[in-house]
Amino acid sequence: MSGVKQDNESNKVVAVIDDPISSLDGDIMFVISALTRMLIDETKAGDHKRVDQVILLTHNTRFHNEVSYQHHGAPTSAVKYYRIRKHAPKPNVVQDCGQKNPIRTAYQELWDEVQTARTHPTEQMPWLPNVMRRILESYFATLGGKTNLYELGEALAPADRALHNALIAWSHSGSHTIMDDEAFAQHSAPSDRWLEAFQRIFTTTADGAHRGHYNMMMDRAQAYVINPVAVDSADTGTTAPASLQEAR
Predict the structure, then answer these.
(1) What is the secondary structure of 40-74 as a DSSP string?
(2) Model-level pTM?
């Protein structure tokens, strides 16, 4: 792309980058991501001598997020997102997602589910225990080194600590079991009390040091839940986690 133009080439070219990190290790992925971001930025600004447009295709969500994170929160007509949907044995379909990035990390999607539950606090949501457990374990256990989630409620008032302990027990029970030895009963209690206890973990633990993380993730989730990328409700095919990003 930066080489000498051949006699049969136009002055400007379209750069098509197809999964450039296949079989590469993590360190190289960050290098390739940085180079790809530079190419996109130069193309957007019109500063590249040869490239007039970039089309990037990838099945790797981590690489996609590394390349596209600088466009979050600042939609521009110079960048568009597409998703390739598989409808085997029918032909694949390219979905135009506009300026909104349809690919989100698994951690962000968990917070989307919490925001959905908070938006409908009186509805039964049997998947909520597993979602809460995965968030708490990802943030406090995996990243923070807190192996015992019950300890997060030690500084709470007795009544709040009891509800905290019940939340941890409920989230583990609801995410790891299907039924007990004698009978099965669907959770019938509304989700609002558990959502309050879940929020309290972030707003009170370590004197509220994690409040900012909770607010940030819930704000992002709220923006996504209220205005998600339109998806064909009739789509029953397999979705390929492939994105196609265009810079003009």
Answers:
(1) HHHHHHT--SSEEEEEEEES-HHHHHHHHGGGTT-
(2) 0.57
Q: Where are the alpha helices (DSSP H) in 69-157?
A: 106-119, 128-136
Amino acid in the structure at residue 198: F
**Closest to 108 in 3D by CA, of 224, 200, 243:** 224
Q: Tokens for 54, please give them.
A: 């970039």
> How is 206-228 classified by DSSP, letter by letter?
GGGTTHHHHHHHHHHHHHHHHSP
Q: What is the pLDDT of residues 108-134, one digit of tens each?
A: 889 988 998 888 877 777 778 888 888
What is each CA distance from 9 to 1, 12, 13, in whole angstroms?
Answer: 11, 8, 8
**Which residue shows structure tokens 């409808």?**
87
52: closest CA among 1, 101, 4, 99?
1
- Cβ atoms of residues 244 and 82 within 8 Å: yes
State CA 232 to chain mean position distance: 20
